Amino acid sequence: MSIPFYGAAQVKSPDNLVQYAHPIVGTQKMGHTFPGATVPFGAVQLSPDTDTISYEQDGKYNPDVYKYCAGYQYEDKSIVGFSHTHFSGTGHSDLGDFLIMPTTGALQLNPGTADKPQSGYRSVYSHKTEVAEPAYYSVRLEDHNILAELTATNRVGFHQYTFPKSDQAHIILDLMAGIYNYPDKNVWTFVRVENDSLVTGYRQTNGWARTRTVYFALQFSKPFKQYGSRRYDKKQAYRGFWGRFDQTKNFPDLAGEQLRMYFDFKTTEGEKIKLKFALSPVSTDGALKNLRAEAPGWDFEQVKRQGQQLWQQELSRVAIQAAKREDKDNFYTALYHAFLSPTTYMDVDGQYRGLDQNTHKAEGFTNYTTFSLWDTYRALHPLFNLVQPKRNADMVQSMMAHFEQSAEHMLPVWSHYANENWCMIGYHSVPVIADAIVKGNTPFDANKALDACVTTARQQWYDGLGHYLQLGYVPEDKSGSSVSKTLEYAYDDWCIAQAAQKLGRQDIYQEFSKRASNWQNVYDARIGFMRPKMSDGTFRKEFDVLSTNNQGFIEGNAWNYSLYVPQDPGKLIQLMGGNQKFVPHLDSLFTMHLPDKFFAETEDITRDGIIGNYVHGNEPAHHAAYLYNWTDQPWKTQERVRMIIKRMYHPTPDGLGGNDDCGQMSAWYVFTALGFYPVAPGSDEYALGSPVVQGATLRLENGKTFTIQVKNQSDKNVYVKQATLNGKILTRPFLKHSDIVQGGELVFTMSARPVGKL
Questions:
Q1: pLDDT digits over 688-701, tens only?
Q2: Do 615 and 566 touch, CB atoms closer than 8 A?
Q3: pLDDT digit string, tens, across residues 113-135
Q4: Model's pTM, two decimal places?
Q5: Which residues contact 565 (CB under 8 A, 6 or more apart)?
Q6: Which end of the chain, N or C, is less packed with Cβ atoms under 10 Å?
């Protein structure tokens, strides 16, 4: 059948694509994905959590918590419960709000421990009974003999629990649970039991986001017999006169820092108790409106079916042909992960909490949050500009709303839930906005957006930026990770220049084109690497090009970061000695051995994500394999990208070689599998690679279609013998964005032997 969506070309829909998308991929080891139920870009991510490890241990950071950025680790043997908010693929975390757990038997309000699950309400489970599909998750909780099933709408988590016969059936609402949790993370919790099947409230936390408030409305399909609560607050000097009431049982008005609740039922064999749990960033009234608008009934299968239809609709934007099932599994799993975030952040009526902590209304756009921009500007947002342009434009407008509400007059750096958490470096809203402007995806005030970019880029107080403007680089003795900052500022500045040129703003173009060349100021020609420079103009003496720790770089070493000049690879190659020296240097990146000691102190870089010294499991070198296209040996790009895909992506729980980082790793795969990649977002050009698919059709929102045909495709035929666009032979290994969005056909003819320049 044909599934229409806004602006889409009405062509025959492909087969059931949901079957190829596997949420379980990346849940083992370093992928940090979650397996639970959500819809595309949904505000609710209803997913199992498998442990309760604290962020701190003995007053210090507990490194074991890093495994639980998404709340779930595939190797764990028990499930604590099902919470409603999760990040996908991040290297830091928050969320895990409102954990629900159904139980039977004697009431237990403590979650217990992984080594003794029976000591609490958690339950052991088996992957044999676990099902993870887009918009659906189910598992049997063995200790309680309960089948748990989850689905979701945009703002509502829908639970269905099939109980055994029991006079002691309970549903626990743990308002203390969280991801990257610690004893003082919960600032305040408020709950109202409105009647025998409706509960409302909110929780405010202080974590990665320091003022995050989430409201909820919880509705049961069956009245509970009784309910109760327990507070675990520290002793307070003053609590008012609430102590006159017994608040532990059947008391409808609850508040505290640490609170757990339970609801008791009597069940018959096979009885299903359903819950609808709606979220709002604004109010409990907003949560109720969301619940009634999106999930008015109790038909679980209908909600699941509608959620999977939404996934079919979004996955159908790119229809591929592939010889192997594994290739389809990898592709649509990657597209699924790419379409998880940013996430919707407003009620059905458009209201949301702003960065100023006031209530705002999104007029004419969907407001989004979860902007992991240090990661996602590279390939995820360029992918959206191609196959999700309306959403990407809304995301830019969301960034502009953030800017207007910012006391610092900054575009978002890494933001979620009406908070800027200042994670990572650069100001990478800029390439997202510039990419949209350069590619003509601007149903917003483009000049106003450019002004916001310029204002952000002139904030001298921010992260070494004042020194950068004064000296032309960030000095290591004044600001750490100085080389990474210099390189990323220079790239962002280039993006501003490109947007200014597109809009005819010559003064801005000149200013930021000059700033964009600052990357040369940290290049040490004597050693052929980028190197930390001190405020007196000298390069730092102590320096190790292989180490990722305290060498002037963030989450990378000099080998990977010295290749980070995506805006001007030609100039970089020239400085590094031209083709004769640069090509062997780039070759060695993929073939040398990086001993463990050089990344032992970096959480985000592990052996799983490394090929030679090339770190695919982290972002800074994601473009590196495409740099051969600027040399006399572009065929090596084709060879490398096929090798990377084969090594780093598998349709298995451990199938990702690093954090998916809100879809960046997956967006890299999608582009590369199609045969091209946006080396420099902010440019209208893609670099060609070597497609994995046999063919593809991009259903564009403007009504056009762009098809890709691959002749002689095989695992051995990784080299492009010839590429034609609309019947004309390409003489350069590049493709323009306009070539795609105008519609047409790209044909690759593959070969088992390298071919020189196209």
A1: 999 999 999 999 99
A2: no
A3: 999 999 999 999 999 999 999 99
A4: 0.97
A5: 487, 490, 491, 519, 571, 572
A6: N
